[in-house]
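Task: sequence in, structure out. Protein: Cupin domain-containing protein.
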Amino acid sequence: MDTDIQHYITHTAAQPWQPLVEKAVHYTGVYVKSLRFDPLQHRSPSILLRFDAGAAYPYHNHPGGEELYVISGEVDIAGAHLVSGDYLYTPPGFKHLVSSGPGCILLLIVPEEVELINS
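Result:
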């Protein structure tokens, strides 16, 4: 294990927001910053997501669950309205869509890749 703490710090202010693209699908108005990349999974289980006003992420399943913290703004998930400072734990197998009327920034911990569901 690398014992230099500097190798474990992500300076998010220095990172540009990247458009969210998964499996060649671009989600208009949704942007991502990776906080931690897991080379074994080839993905980032810890991310920041930014939703522009009116943006949405489609109906999906969380095989490994999810932890979500609203840093700023407002977001609607599965009929619940969350605002800055709210936390949501979704258990494994939970399905929902996500939308934000005014826009928001979210911290997400997603242990396993989400599965999109055609609704």
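The mean pLDDT is 94.
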